[in-house]
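Hi everyone,

Forwarding the result from last night's run.
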Amino acid sequence: MTFTTPEELFEPTLMFFGLTNSPATFQAMMMNKVLRDLINTRKVGSFIDDVMVGTESEKEHNELVEEVLRRMEENNLYVKLEKYK
């Protein structure tokens, strides 16, 4: 989203609260940029701010969760541990 001002174009670097398409923008960033290749394996799913990991073994699950958390940290995304199951 870009705004025109008398001096120049202004493009915010943060998403404004109350923006009507914030969830869609966040979903597109999460799915398309951060987790796309993991989602293509069909072992990771994402919906807005929920990420689901499903694997055959506990070892694979732990490795995949670590990878998801690493990518989130690299992109300045955070989790609330009290929401984790």
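The mean pLDDT is 78.

Cheers,
N.
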